[in-house]
Amino acid sequence: MRRNNRLMKALIVADLHYSLRQYDWLMRVAGGYDLVIVAGDLLDVAGHADLDTQIVVVTKYLARLSATTRLVVCSGNHDADERGAADESVVGWLRDVRSDGGHVDGEHVDLPFGRITICPWWDGPVVRDALEDFLAQAARPAVGPWIWIHHVPPNRSMVSWTGRTHAGDDFLNELIERFQPDLVISGHVHDGPFRRGGSWVDRVGTAWVVNPGRQLGELPAFIELDLTAMTLSWLSLAGSAEVSMQP
User: Fold this and answer.
1) Is-above-0.85 flag for pTM?
2) What would the CATH number be for the domain defined by 9-244?
3) At what angle do helices 20-29 and 51-68 cross, to 10 degrees?
């Protein structure tokens, strides 16, 4: 595993949806980054392989990634494999990813400068309320940005725009207003960066919000986060762009 005194650069992807070609690409490039972030929907409920097979395969990929660099993974709506006590969809298989050295839902990852908070996907009030409590009890880092990983983006933002409507999470907007993270990394809305009126980056209150989007083929759309320069760079088949998060 890469070990540096300071975290320098992170690679951000989302919505791989069991694309093994994109997982293979991720394996090839992961060693060039100090951190890899996968913002949900690692599996594909409509995929050609059954969910149990997908979990076995993807867990092996993630174990290899964890042995290569630091790995952060949040769950998405395609990733649920269990029912919780309140009969809500939950993601149990990520426990194996934690055992293999990855960071998953419900964890805070402290960086040399900054902190990452990994939020679970939720589809009901019990998990939603647990997420709210999790964030309420969290401490903002003394130095550096507070970064959230949350699969569904905030609503009414350019990163949640499908080309016809917004498909974000109103509750996340409330959480951003209340707790004021510096950066929120999401996915879920595949077309956001590629539609007129949409974007891969936006501001919601004082927070930067990003969504790399999804494209087909070997190369996923991705974002590079430079935590030294505090810049965000988006790269896709549609082009590239960069913004500075410096005040």
Assistant:
1) yes
2) 3.60.21.10
3) 10
